[in-house]
Amino acid sequence: METLTLNLKDEQETIAVGEQLAKITAAPLVIYLTGDLGAGKTTLSRGLIQGLGHQGAVKSPTYALVEPYELNGMEVFHFDLYRLSDPEELEFMGIRDYFTERSVCIIEWPDHGHGLLPPADMHLRLKYVNTGRELQIEALSPLGLSLLQQIK
Length: 152
Known about the structure:
The chain is α/β, with parallel strands linked by helices and about 150 residues long. It has 4 helices and 7 strands, in the order βαβαββαβββα.
């Protein structure tokens, strides 16, 4: 598919990209977020979730695995699978029930849920570059491509 690369100099620019994504986000949508610890996955998620209308803090769901939000008629689920020891744990939590026509699913560390997650529409990869970050946004479905073209 198609890829867009952005250079982000600080946390504010990372949040701004999340807010920009929020303006074009509609359910159903699956977003994978990957990158090293501290690369900005939760920061980008915060910008997206707050951009969709959440007024409070956005915390990393590292221990709960998922934080749900009801925003603008959509169910938004923010997953952090970093501490997942076995993908089968996702079956016990009813993972398939989260992916509906009304849901936007943002999944940090999707490789930890390999084999049990649906394919992503967009894959966002964050990596360190000097003191900033590089964000690579890859469209993996026709919906993802449509969204990516709106970002450019």
